[in-house]
Every structure is written in structure tokens, then in C-alpha cells.
Amino acid sequence: MEKALITGITGFVGSHLAEYILKVNKSIKIYGLVRWRSPKNNISKIQGHINFCYGDLEDYGSLEKILKEVKPDVIFHLAAQSYVDFSFVSPISTLQTNVIGTANLLECIKTLKLKTKYNPIIHICSSSEVYGQVKKNEIPIKETNSFRPASPYAVSKVGEDMLALQYFLSWEIKTIRTRMFTHEGPRRGEVFAPSNFAKQIAAIEAGHQKPIVMVGNLKSVRTFMDVRDAVRAYWLLVSKCTPGEVYNIGGVETMTIGEMLNKLISFSKKNDIKVMVDPKRLRPSDVTLQIPSVEKFVQQTGWKPKIKFDQTLKDMLNYWRDYYKKSYE
After folding, report:
1. What is the mean pLDDT of residues 271-289?
2. I want to staple 150 with a disulfide (CB 3.0 to 4.6 A). Which of 132, 167, 175, 248 is the partner?
3. Whole-prediction pTM value?
């Protein structure tokens, strides 16, 4: 592989993936699909090593121009409206970005393939949210588990997932799908629970918030992993996995959201932090049990997570501590 295109390169996972590729393969050229208004904070340290391609998933013409010019060997399609809560507020834009945006990308590849035989490997990033609320006898969740999407975001990821399969079956476009389970780390958006809790704790330590962490449902069970292990898995995926297939990827440390919060609080410099439920943080419907089977992916790649989740939480807390330190210097 000589050229890799990352959609969503300025986001949480995209920025970590770009850093990882630059570390393990300095000869590969990295291209990033960005909108003109995309903030580049997450890639500030590496943007001199990235070739920016300005466009939009919802604009077919811009994608066509980029793909014709760059012709990447591999595409990591990570760009998405990924905030579950916002999808309840704005379901149409969520579907537009995630489903239509993915269809635009795949249709561009199909058109180029028919004209020039160009056919890159395309990683389509679906989500464990497609499984919805599973039954206890379905744990651990396998790739064959039924879809029960419980949010517009989850519905959009079912659409994205199935589009990738359909383009493989109909046009032999080399898509490989992943259903990633919960992954966290520094630079995670503050709207996601672990990062939001870490930010609140950092704000409390810095004297910008009363010693109360506002929370939603703390009883949901998740299997956590570090984003840096996730992007290592993605790199192995496009090197060793089979087009047309789908793979669960997830960690090995399972706990409730409340137990995760207790860990974060235990790492704080404050010993008087309280917890309070905010009704506005409760979803209309929620997914409360997510424990993955990653046997299929591990058998094909040999991948295993390396970073302990305690370290992930400490790194995330330090990220937000630095944020407040820099913001109020």
C-alpha cells in the first residue's frame, strides 16, 4: 500500500489512526477527507504529514474529483455523525451523513471501477450499536447476532453496514466491515460519557465546577478498550482480513458505566466528588448490555488489546486537565 485515504481524519479515531500509520509505515502517503470548516486540533502535531482533500461525503462531485486524482490503495471510512443522543434530535441529518454519505463514496468507487478497474480496499466502520438490546443468552455478541437498532444512529449504521455488503455482492467492491465496541481515549468528544465524566472531574479539580459529576444511566454494561488498540486493529484489518466479511472488534474489560465512573473518580486529586443523575442525560431508548465476541477477528489477525483500561482513563483525565490548564493560563 502506497496511499491511504481517511475520511473523518480530524476526528477522534481518524486522528489516532493517522498517527499510528505514520509510526508504523513512514513511506505511506496519508490523505484526509476534510470539510473546509473541520477543526484540525486533533491532528495539529501531524498535519504537515497529511495531504488534505477538501470535500464532503454528501457532495458526490467532490468525492469523485478526489478519488480520480488520488486513487488511494486503501480507504478508511470513519467519517460519521456518531453521537447517539443527537441522532434522536436530528435523525434525518444522521441518516443523510451516514447512509447517503457512504452510498456516495461506494458509488464513486463503483463508477471508477467500471471505467478504469480501480478497486481499493475499503474499511467501512459500522458499530456495535446495530445489535441493540441483546438478550443475556446472546452474550458474548457474535457477528451473526440479530440487528435490533435502538436509535436513529444505530439505524444509520445498519444502513451503512448493509450498503457495504451489497456493493461487495453486486459489484465486487472490496469492502471490509467492522462493528467496533466501546473505545475511549484522549481526544474523545466531550459528549461521550467517559470523556464527559473525565472533563467534569478535571473542571472540578481546576475549580470551574462544583464537586458534583452529572450523569445519565450508570447501569449499562460495556466492554471497554483503548482507541490506540482500536486503530492498530484497523491497520491489521486491511492487511489481513477478507473483503466481504464483517468483524467485531472490542476489548476485554467489562464493567458498568457506574463502575467506570468510580475508577475515574478514584484517579482524581479531589476526595469529595459526588454523583447526581441529570434526567436530560437519559435516552428515550438505551442499549444496556454490550459484551463482544472478537474470536473471528483474533483468529484472522492475532490481534489482542495491549493497553489497560485504567491507563486509558488516566490518559483521558490528563487530556482534560491539560485542556483546563491551557485554557486558563
Report:
1. 89
2. 132
3. 0.96
